[in-house]
Structures are given as C-alpha cells and as structure tokens.
Design a protein that fits this description.
It is built from three helices and four strands, in the order αββββαα. It has about 130 residues and is of the alpha+beta class. It is found in: Cell junction, Tight junction; Cell membrane.
Length: about 130
Amino acid sequence: MTTVLQMTAFSLALLSTLFLLLATCTDCWMVNADDSLEVSHKCRGLWRECVTNMQDGVRTCDQYDSILADHPVKIVVTRTLLITADLLAGLALATLLLGLDCIKFLKEDPRVKLKMCYGAGVILGIGSM
C-alpha cells in the first residue's frame, strides 16, 4: 500500500514539475489585439514576443535582446519566481526520488528516507507558493 502511495505522490510531483516547466516556456502570457481590424494577434511572453497574422496564419517571433535589459517589472518578477519554482521543484523531485522505498539509496535507515520524503514535500510546498 505504501509503495502505491509513494508512486502516486512521485507521479503527481513529476507531472506538476513538467507543467511548471511548460508554463515557463510558454510564449503567450499576455495577449493583445491592438489593431481595430484584428488582422494580427500579438502574444507577449517572458522570453519573446510573437505576432500572428490572422489572414494567412504566419507567425513571427522576436526574442528579447537581453534577459537583463529594461523590461516591465511584472515580467522580471514572473521570470524570477518561475525560475526559482523550477529549481525548487527539480530539487524536491530528486529528493523525493531518493526517499522512495523502492530505491536502494540508504536502504538500511528508513527514518532518513522518510525525512527525505517530508523534506521534498516541504520544498514542493515552498516552490508552489
């Protein structure tokens, strides 16, 4: 029973980490249609800005010149928080993996493995905030 519960927890942690990485790489965080005729669809992401022509479906993307250039505060804060959450989720996933009972790492001390699982849960909680 505990093996099934641990595998379920690990699967959910892995799935949430993958969704977090996908959200970090997504281009359309802010969608604007500036034209009154709506001939183009503009998406602004954390890493680049894309424009899609609605008539022929051609999409062109411009990467930002520099990560450290002058950007709006909300983009810089969002980048920082997402990268921090990605790093914490990766650390928690590795800790959780080593804490599973089916992994032979520290097999002789189950209390340490349990503490690793609890620590991974705390790290995932901090990363989710």
